[in-house]
Design goal:
By secondary structure, this protein is mainly α. The chain has one domain. Helix content is about 80%, strand content about 0%. The longest helix has 15 residues. The protein starts with a helix and ends in a 6-residue tail after the last helix.
C-alpha cells in the first residue's frame, strides 16, 4: 500500500500537517498495524517528505 500512503502523506503536507505529527501517527498505528507496516510507512514518508525538507 505504499502508493496510497504517498498520496495521503503528500495531501497532509499540502494542507499544513507537520511532519512530526505524521511520525506520531505512524508510531501510534504501529501498535495496531504492526511494527513492520509502520517501518514501511516511515520509509514512504522519508521518500515523499525527507527530514531536511521544509
Amino acid at each position: 500500500r505504499p502508493e496510497e500512503m504517498k498520496i495521503h502523506f503528500r495531501g497532509a503536507r499540502n494542507v499544513g500537517v507537520e511532519r512530526e505529527k505524521l511520525l506520531g501517527v505512524i508510531a501510534h498505528g504501529a501498535h495496531y498495524a504492526g511494527w513492520p507496516n509502520s517501518m514501511a510507512a516511515l520509509r514512504v514518508l522519508d521518500e515523499v517528505w525527507p527530514e531536511n525538507a521544509s
